[in-house]
Amino acid sequence: MERVARELPNRQWGTLKGYERRAFKEKTYPGLVEKAGSSVRGIVYFDLSARAWERLDRFEGDRYTKKEVHVFLDDGPSAAAWTYVTAQEFIYELSDEGWDYEAFRLKRHGGIRGLARRLR
Question: Which CATH number do you get for residue 110?
Answer without folding.
Answer: 3.10.490.10
